[in-house]
Amino acid sequence: VQLQASGGGLVRPGGSLRLSCATFGFRFDDYAIGWFRQAPGKEREFVSTITRGGGSTLYADSVKGRFTISRDNAKNRVYLQMNSLKPDDTADYFCAARPGSYSVRYQNYDYWGQGTLVTVSS
Q: Which residues contact 12 (CB under 8 A, 6 or more apart)?
């Protein structure tokens, strides 16, 4: 089982990035996918999650209205469109998978990819 997050980078405040999570080695549409982030010296925190079929999503209050999660089950990928980025969004972003229903708790996810770094700075 592998998850590979990509798409991070340096962006100015107010800018946009699109993160991608490619998955391998498991039946993708049996798994909910979540995005989490971790800033230096801080705990890992929930960002967003999407159900197996993509019909339902959840967002942290801090990103609601700015970020959009989506998935393409034909390509075994999940995306996180991030708009109106703020310096507080600076962190390593991780995608994770868990079978069945989605969850906002990172402890409930079984498989993790490596992080992709997002830096929001002028």
A: 120, 121, 122
CA distance between the termini of the chain: 37
Per residue, the 3-state secondary structure of 39-70, as one string, reads CCCCCCEEEEEECCCCCCEEECCCCCCCEEEE
Q: What is the pLDDT of residues 68-122, one digit of tens each?
A: 999 999 999 999 999 999 999 999 999 999 999 999 999 999 999 999 999 999 9
Residue 43 neighbours by CB under 8 Å, 6+ apart: none
Question: Closest by alpha carbon to 51, among 65, 36, 70?
Answer: 70
Identify whether the C-beta of residue 7 lies closer than 8 Å to the C-beta of residue 17.
yes
Q: Quick one: CA dihedral 92, 95, 98, 100, positive or negative?
A: positive
Q: What is the DSSP string of the chain?
A: -EEEEE--EEE-TT--EEEEEEEESS-GGGEEEEEEEE-TTS--EEEEEE-TTSS-EEE-TTTTTTEEEEEETTTTEEEEEE-S--GGG-EEEEEEEEESS--S-GGG--EE-B-EEEEE--
